[in-house]
Amino acid sequence: MIHMPDIEKELTLSQVASRLNMSRAHLYRLLDRGEISSHQVGRELRIGLVDLVRFQKRRDRDCEELAQRFSRQASTRAEATGEIAALL
Predict the structure, then answer these.
(1) Architecture of domain 4-87
(2) Which of 35, 63, 74, 86 has the lowest CB atom count within 10 Å?
(3) Where does the chain cross the membrane (predicted)?
(4) What is the distance, to the nearest Å, from the Cα of residue 6 to the centroid of all Cα atoms in its chain?
(5) What is the spatial distance between Cα 74 and Cα 68, in angstroms, rounded to a whole number?
(6) CB-based contact 28:12 (threshold 8 Å)
């Protein structure tokens, strides 16, 4: 949860990469694809804490959806295998 004083907090790319446990190179790829919003401050890029939290929530939701899809696929495969075995 973001506290109101932190709502406008901005992070450096190193801080964001550390929080996301990824390399700066990977973070740059995410920025290039527009998956995380950033803006220029002088010569450096900054990412708003709100934008970081938004990205994390979207990533968590996407991972959950992918896990559910794989789970359904495994269940469907098991059901199909059972039906085929019953026919033999």
Answers:
(1) Orthogonal Bundle (1.10)
(2) 86
(3) none
(4) 21
(5) 10
(6) no
